[in-house]
Amino acid sequence: MILSIASGSLKSRKSSVILTIISLVVSISLLLSVEHIRSEAKDSFGRTVSGVDLIVGARTGQLNLLLYSVFRVGNATNNIDWATFEKIQADELVKWAIPVSLGDSHKGYRVMGTSSDYFKHFRYGQKQLLDFQQGEAFGDILQTVIGAEVAQKLGYQVGDSITLSHGVGGVSFSNHDEAPFVVTGILKATGTPVDQTVHVSLESLELVHLPAAHIARYVSDPQAALNQNPLQPKTITAFFLGLNSKFATFGVQRSINNYRGEPLLAILPGVALAELWQMLGTVENLLRVISVLILISSLFGLATMLLASMRERHREIAVLRAIGAGPGLLFVLIQAEALLVSAVATLLSFLLVWLTLVVSNEWLSTYYGLFISTDLLTQDAMLIALMVVIATSIVACIPAIGAYRRALHSGLNQ
Amino acid sequence: MTQHNTDYLLQMRDVTFRYQATSEADLLAIAQWDLRVGQKVFLYGPSGSGKSTLLNLLAGTLKPQQGSIRILNQDIALLSARKRDKFRAQNIGVVFQQFNLIPYLSVAQNIEAAAWLAGNTRADLSHRIAQTIRQLQLPTTILAQQASQLSVGQQQRVAIARALINNPRLMIVDEPTSALDSDARDSFMQLLLQVCEQANSTLVFVSHDQSLSQYFDERVSLASLNQAIPAKAEQ
Hints:
The structure holds 2 protein chains of 2 kinds.
Chain A (H helix, E strand, L loop, with lengths): L1 H10 L2 H34 L6 E5 L3 H8 L10 E2 H8 L4 E13 L2 E6 L2 H5 L1 E2 L3 E2 L2 E4 L7 E4 L1 H7 L6 E2 L2 E2 L14 E7 L9 E5 H7 L3 H9 L1 H7 L6 E2 L1 E6 L5 H9 L6 E4 L1 H43 L2 H9 L4 H42 L10 H17 L1 H14 L4
Parallel strand pairs in A: 4-12, 8-11
Antiparallel strand pairs in A: 1-14, 1-15, 2-13, 3-4, 3-10, 3-14, 5-6, 7-11, 8-12, 9-11
Helix pairs in contact in A: 1-13, 2-11, 2-13, 2-14, 8-9, 11-13, 11-14, 11-15, 12-15, 13-14, 13-15
Chain B lengths: L7 E10 L10 E9 L3 E5 L6 H9 L6 E6 L2 E2 L5 H11 E4 L11 H11 L7 H11 L16 H13 L5 E5 L7 H18 L2 E6 L10 E4 H4 L10
């Protein structure tokens, strides 16, 4: 009965109720999306690297090493000697090692020199290997494998020819024009920085940094030139290690950190990612606070709407009193109206955010490599819904107490 | 007036009321006022004579400072607020001057709400509602209509139907005809007296319009009833 009275009352004030619902839908949707994207971004962060036991670079901060080796953000402070890499690779505890050499770019996308082991061992997400949507890994010098976003944005196909630039800016004054690369493969989208990377072999990187005259020989007759003058990388930026046993991780980390040949730093990617996420947590909390504030202001809008309606409802209150309603029932009635409005708004918000995710999912993964789950019914989302209900009930006490007092004091007087 | 039943429905004794306990003078002071079961009384009182206050006291929405108000042998001033509300729902039917119905509910819902508040859960409730509506010479198609779509005359009849649904022992009717034209007023009065007679309900009919007293055998002036001096403006 209370519900049918409450819903009848709301229907009779359609326009103001609809406006209030819209305002609530906007704020609840915002809160839901912020929360959803936050947890998805956190997941996506964790996806960037998996199956790598240690990341090794020249001694620097843990975050700096993670940022430049995995996220291709910033620059290495120093390089590692190739001999050091070979020595650690040969350790019996090491299962595989992937060298990484950064410093060049192609139209703003980072170029990463590596070995073909990269495609065999590097994993992301749920321990997935990199997959090709077209072509295959580079085998020879002056061949390249590009990430999904690079291919998509620049419109490259397998067989296309590209040139690298020295340095990492979008525009470079030093282009390696003499040594064009052929695209041999395009990777599938991963939702990680791999999508934005141009992969080449370490030898190729060595080659493009030779004097122009030398490059010409390799370009005209690669085999003869290689036989005469093999390309040997002298330094790399960092390397990823896979170990034979997880239990060896800390031991290997310690021995690398204590390496006598040169100052090195070995980090556990999971620990570094967690630290990075903690730093970004401030931004996340800010977003959260803003959306909660917007929600609160919408709820006060709801209370204002109900309070304003009390003005024209004193006759209704007198009628309800006359047929035996107590002041408590009027309190409950106003609460029911507020809760109905916010329940409808919450349902609509879930629907809206879910629809937006479903519609934009394809587009986000294709164009931005963002993989956002459409599963909204998480525990966090339920918690938000519960929080909205509780907050509504608290705020609705203002008009509800007004109705209670009106009912108590004015009795049957209209 | 012939009285078949000697039981009293209402017995007021030494009732005094003032809005603020600190007020100097009482608004109402009634030494004795009794109504027998089935009695129909015209209570005359110009505005400002304390009419509303008396009605609120009878309905139990106000409590007297002193004295006892016994309805059906129950001193309602001694009941808790919650029990007074329930008592009103079950035993007292109230019809106002105007705005008797909740405008956004259907006629049926308006009457059902009254039944619900009285805890009236009889199985044939909808049948009884239709019966009452017919008794008040309204078409049953009106039940599905929103109260706000009804004419004032129709609304006042529905108000009586709503007040009757729980078979109240006491009907309090406050200026119900002031919004009606004279023809409608006459048929309304006939109907009201008829249904109260059928239900054997005691009727307290309040008005400032002395011409309506012709329908009643008994008339009381609030001014003679109320010994408080001087009567203050009603709230």
